[in-house]
Specification:
Number of helices: 20
Helix content: 40-55%
Largest sheet: 2 strands, antiparallel
Number of strands: 6
Distance between the termini: 74 Å
Strand order of the largest sheet: 1-2
Shape: elongated
Low-confidence stretches: 254-259, 434-440
Length: 440
């Protein structure tokens, strides 16, 4: 129970308590406004936990429908009264922002505990923290458009910022401007001659400022992700290698003039601008496959089978090799995503079904390369498939929802075939008994 605080207004005593709730946000005179953000995050986690358990029962629900449900339910719980607490979201540390924003994005993508930047770029998914900042911006924009008491409140917040001296960056307006300038470097709030915003890129008349900022923040983060991968290419056994190859094929290097290297242009859209229409489980399987988080020796050295296959961990030749090709024909071939898609005998039936499904797609223009031709390139040229072959296949399918859906079904089918083949694989298939005794 709280002690009452005496407050007088026009010589009339008013009873007040030290805490109160305003628009769903909790404030306390002994705490900072970050407590309001923490209260909303806790509420959002409760909604997210309940919703995630329910959606596990419908794995065939389309990706876009799952996105709508999550953003409506969890986003509605988290973003309530974000105009007040959005500037006070913690932004310091190795993982800036709220944990609910990262967890929701990683859950939708099916990437588990992956870092936030690894969840960006595959689909255009706005992040909750950016949406919250956009709502705070909308409060300023509404004050400019409609005036009234809201305008007086924003002017007071701007006055607090201008008169705070060395503590200006800790005020509501100071924190807001610092956060927005990460996306819009020239953003500023003016009060002379009247309240106005500057440094906001032009937008379509029907687009609200909240959505405009969230989309711009997504694009800025996606460009940073591209620049990081293209400037520091990952090695072949790293998870992000396939994404790097896809970007390397999509982002063509501009012509060099006067022997001066030109910066690469970056993608303005996501890898899949039109999400597949298949179920959320199939979409997650596709993204995990393309993110290098699938069960392939290229990235995990067959770690899940070390206990089942003695000697595999110590074998430098078999640790990253395709165990199926070695068991059938005694060939040491790297177990990679492109080998599995193009030439691994386990996926031969999956490839035939994929070719048949793509032949029914009517969105392939006559001038473009046909999927069947790409799938047959390694065999026609009498060479092993490489990562560029898989990148070409993905680029062919990425811009059409129907073809992206068929690609997702193919990856699900291929993953299931590999899982069944691993279940039938034995130690004697890898290390015959004669050679096994000779090893020890």
């Amino acid at each position: 129970m709280f002690d009452y605080i005496n407050f007088a207004y026009k010589r009339v005593r008013i009873k007040m308590v030290e805490t109160f709730v305003y628009l769903g946000a909790l404030f306390h005179w002994k705490q900072t406004a970050e407590s309001a953000w923490a209260d909303r995050q806790n509420t959002a986690f409760k909604a997210f936990g309940s919703l995630a358990c329910s959606l596990c029962m419908v794995p065939f629900l389309p990706f876009f429908r799952v996105k709508e449900v999550v953003y409506t339910t969890v986003g509605g719980a988290y973003l309530f009264a974000a105009e007040l607490w959005a500037p006070f979201i913690p932004r310091a540390g190795r993982t800036p922002g709220s944990r609910i924003s990262r967890d929701v994005l990683a859950w939708i993508m099916g990437l588990g505990s992956a870092r936030l930047e690894r969840c960006r770029g595959w689909f255009e998914l706005r992040e909750f923290d950016d949406m919250a900042t956009g709502m705070a911006l909308r409060a300023v924009d509404d004050a400019i458009c409609h005036g009234g008491l809201l305008k007086k409140a924003i002017l007071q917040l701007q006055s607090n910022f201008e008169n705070a001296g060395s503590k200006a960056n800790k005020t509501w307006m100071g924190r807001l401007q610092k956060t927005v300038r990460v996306t819009w470097p020239r953003f500023k709030v003016y009060t002379m001659p009247d309240l106005q915003l500057s440094g906001v890129p032009p937008r379509d008349p029907g687009v609200k400022l909240t959505k405009h900022f969230a989309s711009s923040a997504w694009l800025v983060n996606w460009k940073k992700r591209q620049a990081s991968l293209l400037s520091h290419p990952p090695t072949g056994n790293q998870q992000d290698y396939l994404l790097y190859v896809i970007l390397d094929n999509l982002c063509e290097r501009s012509s060099e003039e006067d022997n001066q290297p030109q910066p690469r242009p970056s993608l303005q859209a996501s890898i899949f601008p039109f999400p597949p229409t298949v179920g959320i489980a199939s979409c997650r399987c596709l993204i995990r496959f393309l993110s290098g988080m699938g069960d392939f020796g290229r990235v995990n050295a067959h770690r899940p089978r070390w206990s089942s296959f003695p000697g595999l961990r110590e074998s430098n030749t078999h640790k990253r090799a395709c165990l199926f090709c070695w068991a059938q024909s005694r060939k040491l071939i790297e177990d990679s995503e492109w080998h599995s898609v193009f030439s691994c005998p386990v996926g031969s039936a999956c490839r035939q079904r994929f070719q048949l499904a793509l032949s029914d797609c009517r969105n392939i223009s006559e001038g473009t390369e046909q999927p069947k031709e790409i799938l047959e390139i390694p065999s026609k040229n009498s060479r092993l498939p490489n990562s560029s072959d898989l990148a070409r296949l993905i680029i062919l399918c990425h811009s059409e929802s129907q073809m992206a859906s068929e690609l997702a079904r193919f990856i699900v089918d291929l993953t299931a075939s590999r899982k069944r083949a691993f279940a039938k694989l034995t130690v004697r298939d890898l290390f015959p008994e004669s050679s096994w005794h000779s090893r020890f």
